[in-house]
Amino acid sequence: MKTYQPLVLQKLDIRIPHLHVRRLAVHRHLPETTDVKPHGHSFAQCLLYLSGRGIQEIAGRTHPIETGSAVFLPPGMNHAFHREANRRPICMVLDFDWRGSGARPAQVLPVPTGRLHELRQLLARLVGLQRQPGPAPSIQMSAVILTILEHLLTATVFHEIAPSGFQSPVARKLDRLLSAPETASEPLGALASKAGYQPDYLNRLLKQHDGLTLGQLRARKRLAHAQQLLRQSGSIAEVATAVGYGDPNYFARWFRKQTGRSPSRWRTGSKH
Question: 257: which of 80, 93, 98, 220 is 20 to 30 A away, CA to CA?
Fold first, then answer.
Protein backbone atom coordinates (compact mmCIF):
# COMPACT_ATOMS: atom_id res chain seq x y z
CA MET A 1 0.00 0.00 0.00
CA LYS A 2 1.28 3.44 -0.91
CA THR A 3 2.20 5.47 2.18
CA TYR A 4 3.53 8.73 0.74
CA GLN A 5 3.09 11.38 -1.96
CA PRO A 6 6.22 12.09 -4.06
CA LEU A 7 6.98 15.83 -4.19
CA VAL A 8 10.29 15.44 -6.02
CA LEU A 9 11.32 12.25 -7.81
CA GLN A 10 14.56 12.05 -9.77
CA LYS A 11 15.72 8.70 -11.12
CA LEU A 12 19.47 8.88 -11.45
CA ASP A 13 22.47 7.12 -12.88
CA ILE A 14 25.36 9.12 -11.41
CA ARG A 15 28.53 7.05 -11.35
CA ILE A 16 31.93 7.89 -9.94
CA PRO A 17 34.54 5.43 -8.63
CA HIS A 18 33.03 3.27 -5.84
CA LEU A 19 29.68 5.15 -5.94
CA HIS A 20 26.46 4.84 -7.93
CA VAL A 21 23.62 7.23 -7.02
CA ARG A 22 20.29 5.68 -8.05
CA ARG A 23 17.53 8.07 -6.98
CA LEU A 24 16.65 11.22 -5.08
CA ALA A 25 13.10 11.69 -3.85
CA VAL A 26 11.19 13.96 -1.48
CA HIS A 27 8.12 12.30 0.04
CA ARG A 28 5.24 13.63 2.13
CA HIS A 29 3.43 10.98 4.16
CA LEU A 30 -0.23 10.55 3.24
CA PRO A 31 -2.79 11.75 5.84
CA GLU A 32 -3.80 8.20 6.78
CA THR A 33 -0.20 7.00 7.17
CA THR A 34 0.96 6.65 10.76
CA ASP A 35 3.34 3.71 10.29
CA VAL A 36 5.74 2.65 7.56
CA LYS A 37 6.13 -1.08 8.05
CA PRO A 38 9.57 -2.68 8.59
CA HIS A 39 11.46 -3.15 5.33
CA GLY A 40 14.98 -3.15 3.90
CA HIS A 41 16.80 -2.44 0.64
CA SER A 42 19.67 -3.92 -1.33
CA PHE A 43 21.29 -0.46 -1.51
CA ALA A 44 22.33 2.18 1.04
CA GLN A 45 20.10 5.13 1.93
CA CYS A 46 20.42 8.59 3.43
CA LEU A 47 17.25 10.18 4.79
CA LEU A 48 16.71 13.79 5.85
CA TYR A 49 13.50 14.76 7.64
CA LEU A 50 12.56 18.24 6.43
CA SER A 51 9.50 18.42 8.69
CA GLY A 52 7.45 16.31 11.07
CA ARG A 53 8.17 14.15 14.08
CA GLY A 54 8.23 10.43 14.74
CA ILE A 55 10.24 7.38 15.68
CA GLN A 56 12.71 5.67 13.36
CA GLU A 57 13.03 2.00 14.20
CA ILE A 58 16.27 0.40 12.97
CA ALA A 59 17.02 -3.27 13.63
CA GLY A 60 14.68 -3.23 16.62
CA ARG A 61 16.07 -0.06 18.22
CA THR A 62 14.11 3.21 18.31
CA HIS A 63 15.39 6.71 17.57
CA PRO A 64 13.41 9.97 18.05
CA ILE A 65 13.05 11.88 14.77
CA GLU A 66 12.24 15.55 14.26
CA THR A 67 12.88 18.25 11.69
CA GLY A 68 16.57 18.14 10.76
CA SER A 69 17.17 14.49 11.69
CA ALA A 70 19.49 12.67 9.26
CA VAL A 71 19.61 8.89 8.92
CA PHE A 72 22.15 6.61 7.25
CA LEU A 73 21.02 3.04 6.49
CA PRO A 74 23.49 0.46 5.16
CA PRO A 75 22.23 -2.13 2.65
CA GLY A 76 19.93 -4.75 4.09
CA MET A 77 19.20 -2.83 7.29
CA ASN A 78 15.61 -3.42 8.43
CA HIS A 79 13.85 -0.15 9.35
CA ALA A 80 10.42 1.34 9.95
CA PHE A 81 8.89 4.73 10.79
CA HIS A 82 6.14 5.67 13.24
CA ARG A 83 4.63 9.12 12.87
CA GLU A 84 3.94 11.42 15.83
CA ALA A 85 1.63 14.44 15.99
CA ASN A 86 -0.69 15.57 13.19
CA ARG A 87 1.88 17.17 10.91
CA ARG A 88 2.76 14.84 8.04
CA PRO A 89 6.52 14.28 7.74
CA ILE A 90 8.38 15.35 4.62
CA CYS A 91 11.48 13.24 4.01
CA MET A 92 14.26 13.50 1.43
CA VAL A 93 15.64 10.10 0.39
CA LEU A 94 18.83 9.29 -1.50
CA ASP A 95 19.36 5.72 -2.72
CA PHE A 96 22.91 4.74 -3.65
CA ASP A 97 25.43 1.92 -3.97
CA TRP A 98 28.69 2.65 -2.19
CA ARG A 99 31.53 0.19 -1.85
CA GLY A 100 32.08 -0.53 1.84
CA SER A 101 28.71 0.85 3.00
CA GLY A 102 27.68 -2.58 4.28
CA ALA A 103 30.42 -2.40 6.92
CA ARG A 104 29.14 0.94 8.24
CA PRO A 105 26.68 1.10 11.16
CA ALA A 106 23.32 2.80 10.87
CA GLN A 107 23.33 6.37 12.19
CA VAL A 108 20.63 8.81 13.34
CA LEU A 109 21.91 12.29 14.13
CA PRO A 110 20.63 15.88 14.10
CA VAL A 111 21.90 18.10 11.32
CA PRO A 112 23.25 21.42 12.68
CA THR A 113 21.13 24.43 11.73
CA GLY A 114 23.69 25.90 9.30
CA ARG A 115 24.09 22.63 7.37
CA LEU A 116 20.33 22.09 7.30
CA HIS A 117 19.90 25.55 5.75
CA GLU A 118 22.48 24.66 3.08
CA LEU A 119 20.68 21.41 2.30
CA ARG A 120 17.36 23.23 1.86
CA GLN A 121 19.06 25.68 -0.51
CA LEU A 122 20.57 22.82 -2.52
CA LEU A 123 17.19 21.12 -2.78
CA ALA A 124 15.61 24.37 -3.96
CA ARG A 125 18.41 24.69 -6.52
CA LEU A 126 17.70 21.15 -7.75
CA VAL A 127 13.98 21.88 -8.13
CA GLY A 128 14.82 25.08 -10.02
CA LEU A 129 17.04 23.16 -12.44
CA GLN A 130 14.30 20.58 -13.01
CA ARG A 131 11.81 23.31 -13.93
CA GLN A 132 13.99 24.97 -16.53
CA PRO A 133 12.59 24.60 -20.08
CA GLY A 134 14.27 22.13 -22.36
CA PRO A 135 16.45 19.15 -21.38
CA ALA A 136 17.49 19.10 -17.76
CA PRO A 137 21.10 20.29 -17.26
CA SER A 138 22.36 16.90 -16.11
CA ILE A 139 25.89 17.96 -15.15
CA GLN A 140 24.63 20.73 -12.86
CA MET A 141 21.97 18.48 -11.36
CA SER A 142 24.50 15.71 -10.74
CA ALA A 143 26.82 18.17 -9.02
CA VAL A 144 24.01 19.39 -6.74
CA ILE A 145 22.92 15.84 -5.87
CA LEU A 146 26.47 14.73 -5.07
CA THR A 147 26.85 17.80 -2.83
CA ILE A 148 23.61 16.88 -1.03
CA LEU A 149 24.89 13.34 -0.51
CA GLU A 150 28.24 14.64 0.74
CA HIS A 151 26.46 16.82 3.32
CA LEU A 152 24.32 13.91 4.53
CA LEU A 153 27.25 11.51 4.78
CA THR A 154 29.26 14.14 6.65
CA ALA A 155 26.37 14.58 9.08
CA THR A 156 26.06 10.82 9.68
CA VAL A 157 28.72 8.34 8.54
CA PHE A 158 31.70 10.70 8.68
CA HIS A 159 30.51 12.52 11.77
CA GLU A 160 33.14 12.27 14.51
CA ILE A 161 30.92 11.06 17.29
CA ALA A 162 31.88 11.62 20.89
CA PRO A 163 31.12 8.73 23.25
CA SER A 164 27.92 10.56 24.25
CA GLY A 165 26.81 10.89 20.62
CA PHE A 166 26.99 14.71 20.70
CA GLN A 167 29.30 16.96 18.73
CA SER A 168 30.10 20.19 20.53
CA PRO A 169 32.08 20.59 23.79
CA VAL A 170 29.11 22.28 25.49
CA ALA A 171 26.83 19.34 24.57
CA ARG A 172 29.36 16.86 25.91
CA LYS A 173 29.61 18.91 29.13
CA LEU A 174 25.82 18.84 29.49
CA ASP A 175 25.73 15.13 28.74
CA ARG A 176 28.06 14.51 31.68
CA LEU A 177 25.92 16.80 33.86
CA LEU A 178 22.73 14.99 32.84
CA SER A 179 24.32 11.62 33.69
CA ALA A 180 24.32 12.50 37.41
CA PRO A 181 21.26 10.92 39.16
CA GLU A 182 20.50 14.10 41.12
CA THR A 183 19.91 16.08 37.92
CA ALA A 184 17.18 13.77 36.56
CA SER A 185 14.34 16.07 37.67
CA GLU A 186 16.32 19.35 37.79
CA PRO A 187 14.55 22.32 36.09
CA LEU A 188 16.10 23.28 32.76
CA GLY A 189 16.99 26.76 34.01
CA ALA A 190 18.90 25.30 36.94
CA LEU A 191 20.74 22.91 34.61
CA ALA A 192 21.76 25.78 32.36
CA SER A 193 23.05 27.71 35.39
CA LYS A 194 25.04 24.70 36.58
CA ALA A 195 26.65 24.54 33.15
CA GLY A 196 27.50 28.26 33.40
CA TYR A 197 25.06 29.63 30.78
CA GLN A 198 21.89 31.67 30.51
CA PRO A 199 19.10 29.35 29.27
CA ASP A 200 18.29 31.29 26.06
CA TYR A 201 21.94 31.62 25.05
CA LEU A 202 22.59 27.95 25.82
CA ASN A 203 19.68 26.85 23.63
CA ARG A 204 20.92 29.00 20.73
CA LEU A 205 24.41 27.55 21.13
CA LEU A 206 23.19 23.96 21.23
CA LYS A 207 20.82 24.45 18.30
CA GLN A 208 23.57 25.95 16.17
CA HIS A 209 26.15 23.22 16.81
CA ASP A 210 24.11 20.11 17.64
CA GLY A 211 20.61 20.76 16.26
CA LEU A 212 19.02 20.28 19.71
CA THR A 213 17.79 22.49 22.53
CA LEU A 214 18.62 21.67 26.16
CA GLY A 215 15.13 20.21 26.62
CA GLN A 216 15.53 18.00 23.55
CA LEU A 217 18.98 16.89 24.65
CA ARG A 218 17.65 15.92 28.07
CA ALA A 219 14.66 14.12 26.51
CA ARG A 220 17.04 12.07 24.34
CA LYS A 221 19.18 11.26 27.39
CA ARG A 222 16.11 10.34 29.45
CA LEU A 223 14.73 8.12 26.71
CA ALA A 224 18.00 6.21 26.31
CA HIS A 225 18.21 5.74 30.10
CA ALA A 226 14.56 4.65 30.32
CA GLN A 227 15.02 2.09 27.54
CA GLN A 228 18.14 0.75 29.24
CA LEU A 229 16.24 0.32 32.53
CA LEU A 230 13.19 -1.22 30.84
CA ARG A 231 15.41 -4.02 29.54
CA GLN A 232 15.99 -4.92 33.20
CA SER A 233 13.53 -6.27 35.76
CA GLY A 234 12.48 -3.12 37.64
CA SER A 235 8.90 -1.88 37.67
CA ILE A 236 7.61 0.88 35.40
CA ALA A 237 7.23 3.12 38.47
CA GLU A 238 10.89 2.57 39.40
CA VAL A 239 11.98 3.43 35.86
CA ALA A 240 9.84 6.58 35.92
CA THR A 241 11.43 7.75 39.17
CA ALA A 242 14.95 6.98 37.94
CA VAL A 243 14.55 9.20 34.87
CA GLY A 244 12.97 12.10 36.77
CA TYR A 245 9.19 11.46 36.64
CA GLY A 246 7.42 11.09 39.97
CA ASP A 247 4.13 10.13 38.29
CA PRO A 248 4.31 6.78 36.44
CA ASN A 249 1.21 7.66 34.38
CA TYR A 250 2.79 10.91 33.19
CA PHE A 251 5.99 9.00 32.39
CA ALA A 252 3.99 6.44 30.38
CA ARG A 253 2.35 9.22 28.33
CA TRP A 254 5.72 10.88 27.73
CA PHE A 255 7.34 7.57 26.76
CA ARG A 256 4.53 6.78 24.31
CA LYS A 257 4.94 10.22 22.75
CA GLN A 258 8.67 9.57 22.26
CA THR A 259 8.47 6.00 20.94
CA GLY A 260 4.90 5.39 19.79
CA ARG A 261 4.56 2.58 22.37
CA SER A 262 3.81 2.31 26.07
CA PRO A 263 6.71 1.38 28.38
CA SER A 264 5.29 -2.11 28.97
CA ARG A 265 4.73 -2.73 25.26
CA TRP A 266 8.21 -1.42 24.43
CA ARG A 267 9.71 -3.69 27.13
CA THR A 268 7.94 -6.73 25.66
CA GLY A 269 9.08 -5.89 22.13
CA SER A 270 12.71 -5.32 23.17
CA LYS A 271 12.96 -8.92 24.40
CA HIS A 272 12.26 -10.42 20.96
Answer: 93
